[in-house]
Design a protein that fits this description.
It holds the Pfam family HTH_3. It comes from Candidatus Oscillibacter excrementigallinarum. With 346 residues, the protein is mainly alpha-helical. The chain is built from 13 helices and two strands, in the order ααααααααββααααα. Helix 6 packs parallel to helix 8 and helix 11 runs antiparallel to helix 13.
Length: 346
């Protein structure tokens, strides 16, 4: 072991990290003179300090004793170069797991016999592994992710989770199994409810991941994509992003619930019409039968009429609730605006 070579190596590592001898000494729990002695080659670090010294500079104890980086490690570069390299590695790990998770979830959604039942849990496992590999080392290690990276990661989490949620709904039977002789297919009696359940689950996913993202990356982070050139403008308004986030989340919940209810009602109408269409033909059923077919018209109205009225009710409820959300949005904007006197205007 060459004390002079080790000292020069330690000095280079410290300077690459932008630290002074005093800062390094404080982190290691030794005196400034001790750090200076190591770097001048007047002595070698004690074996009890060596692990902490290696962790501080991001190298191994063998590297310090040899006075050089024995393997091609990113830690030997500058602090910024090392950070960029580690970020690329972390994001690459997550992206590989993300791509695999989405691909397996799509495969599971096709309901391939035996394959789908195995593909869905593997998809969820891959997504979780990707999150742990990418987020936890970055969060709890010596590399901090910026807001943009956190947003990118959580948007991919939302995408993969939404696909997995839909695949799970397709795999799980709801209600009892029925046979449609007209179309020669099997279906579950509560299949029409699945779009609504998916919409509600998607809204919950958005709310949970939005809150988790804000806790990770700060109050300005959002799942909503905002172009970089607009971000400085948005930051000028006090609490603008927070108000915007709450508003678009409210509109998202309204939209997904309304869409789910519409698909439910529309699916029930089609299901009620299918045996009539199979027997009399679509053109005749859609036209409502001739006036002289009084009995059949009454039966068709009894079977389908309440579902058609339900579908119309969904549209009416959507219009009323949409107006309510719009009024709430305008009132929230007005309430959140600061008085002119507080802005220094006259």
């Amino acid at each position: 072991m060459d004390a002079g070579r080790t000292g020069a190596y330690l000095a280079a590592l410290r300077k690459a990290r932008g630290m002074t001898q005093q800062e390094a000494a404080e982190q290691l729990g030794v005196s400034n003179k001790t750090v200076s002695k190591w770097e001048n080659g007047a002595g070698l670090p004690d074996i009890t300090v060596l692990p902490a010294l290696a962790e501080l500079y991001g190298v191994t104890a063998d590297d310090i004793l040899a006075g050089e980086t024995l393997r091609g490690r990113p830690e030997s570069g500058t602090g910024e170069a090392r950070r960029r390299l580690l970020l690329v590695r972390l994001r690459t790990r997550f992206d590989i797991c993300f791509a695999g998770a989405v691909a397996l979830a799509v495969l599971a959604a096709f309901q391939v016999a035996y394959v789908s039942l195995a593909a869905w849990p593997v998809s969820v496992g891959l997504l979780w592994i990707g999150y742990v590999l990418a987020a936890h080392p970055a969060r709890y290690g010596d590399v901090a992710l910026d807001t943009g990276t956190w947003e990118n990661l959580y948007r991919k989490l939302l995408t993969a989770s939404a696909v997995q949620w839909w695949a799970l709904l397709r795999l799980v039977p709801l209600g009892r199994l029925e046979l449609d002789f007209a179309e020669m297919r099997y279906y579950d009696t509560m299949d029409a409810w699945k779009p609504l359940i998916f919409a509600v689950g998607l809204a919950v996913l958005c709310a949970v991941l939005e809150r988790a993202l804000r806790r990770r990356a700060g109050a300005e982070a959002s799942l909503l994509w905002v172009p970089e050139r607009l971000r400085p403008t948005l930051r000028r308004g006090d609490r603008f992003l927070r108000r915007t986030r709450q508003i678009w989340l409210a509109w998202l919940v309204w939209a997904v619930v309304l869409a789910g209810l519409w698909f439910l009602a529309d699916g029930q109408v089609d299901r009620a019409l299918s045996p009539w269409i199979a027997q009399y033909g679509e053109d005749l059923v859609r036209s409502g039968f001739p006036e002289s077919w009084t009995i059949l018209r009454g039966r068709l109205e009894a079977d389908v009429g309440h579902w058609i009225r339900l579908r119309q009710g969904v549209l009416l409820a959507g219009a009323v609730s949409g107006a309510g959300v719009l009024i709430w949005t305008l009132m929230r904007w007005k309430k959140s605006r600061r008085p002119l006197a507080e802005k220094g205007e006259t």
